[in-house]
Amino acid sequence: MHLSDLRLIFAPMKEELVSKPGLFGQKHSSRDYSKAKNWGKNIFNSSFPASLVAYMFSKNISPVYIKTDKDGKLCKDYISGEDIFRINPLSDNAYYNFEAGFSSFEKFYTGNREKIDLVMMDTETNSNLIGLEIKLTALPDNTTKNLPEDKFGCEIVVRPPTICFLACSICEAYNNDEAKNRLRKILNKVPKIYHWNETSAVLPHYDKIEQAIKEISKEIWEQQQPLIIQPVWKMSGNKLAEDCLDTFVWSNLAVLHMCYQKEGRTNTEISRFQRALIWVFLMLKDFVDYDTFDYVRIIKEHSYENANDKAFSMPGKTSNRLMSCPELTRPRIKKSEIKNIILGGGQNLLSPERRFDAALVNSPDIFD
């Protein structure tokens, strides 16, 4: 066979490889991006952020890391994509496993297993490296859209499973007899409560519950780890802003810190923020006594007259106070760079079911 014949055979294959829909950096993924279903509702909202982290890594741009210091105060730093994923995001051994179980957390709770948004895996060692929740958020939200840009904020909604994962990440830091005894001593500083499902029995002791959680956070601050990846996409009027995208990462202890909000607290009711800390306390209490906790039972039996559809949420005015920094005002990834993240015509498979999807579908010039 002549060389010219071989070229004819392989030329279409090369063209197909180049034009195949995909996302930057995800050489190996549990999602096949050649299929339209993997660009649909709730799927793109976790797969695109993972590739945004990989793209930022390729550009040597580190996401903003929101964490706590040794005094339990919120602080900001930067964290590389490799430190977030615990593997080079562009490595041939990096496997992006979406909506998967994370065994490192599952050993700490009983009952139905919750899937976490992204589990990063190393195919060489066949190991699960880290489990991460992903929240793609719009900037600004309705509460901040009429404010100056440096006051823009995102609505953040935290689901009950995230509280379960948060508790599991703390259990990891106390997963031996000596450490567990230290944790038990801290938890025992809260007076005995006989009716944990009754607001009137719990509320008088709430301050001590929160203080115990804060003491735990201070003790394990050097062991905190990424838990939530929160990319922001910025709008300018009805269009994507030129300074369009950036990524924030919340450590597990920073997520706890979200719950220290005093807004909406009363002397007669337990707020969603307070309830989330009570859930964590109860999960840790069962962990030190029984090695595991029944996540579903704790959530179900301790609703305190609030619906369990979400653990809590905070509007942009509140999140701005926690996230405010130059990167929030001026995100570092430009609108023109989106075409470097969504590859092979993948934008044509999007359905405008969510605001970011719709913004991309309505901005075809980005991909010219």
Give average pLDDT, whole number: 92
The major β-sheet equals: 9 strands, mixed
Shape: globular
**Per DSSP, what share of the residues sits in E-state strands of 2 or more residues?**
15-25%
How many helical stretches? 14
| Helicity level | 25-40%
What this model shows, in words?
With 368 residues, this protein is an alpha+beta fold. Helices cover 37% and strands 19% of the residues. The protein contains 14 helices and 13 strands. It has helices at residues 3-19, 44-58, 81-85, 103-106, 160-173, 177-187, 199-202, 206-219, 252-258, 272-290, 295-301, 316-323, 326-329, 355-361; strands at residues 22-23, 64-68, 74-78, 94-100, 116-122, 127-134, 137-139, 156-158, 226-236, 239-251, 312-314, 333-334, 342-343. Strands 2, 3, 4, 5, 6, 7, 9, 10 and 12 form a nine-stranded mixed sheet that branches. It has a two-stranded antiparallel sheet with strand order 1-13. It has a two-stranded antiparallel sheet with strand order 8-11. A hairpin with a 4-residue loop joins strand 5 (116-122) and strand 6 (127-134). Helix 6 (177-187) packs across helix 10 (272-290). The longest helix is centred in the last third of the chain and has 19 residues, at 272-290. The radius of gyration is 22 Å and the shape is globular. Mean pLDDT is 92; it is low at 1-18.
In short:
This protein is of the alpha+beta class.
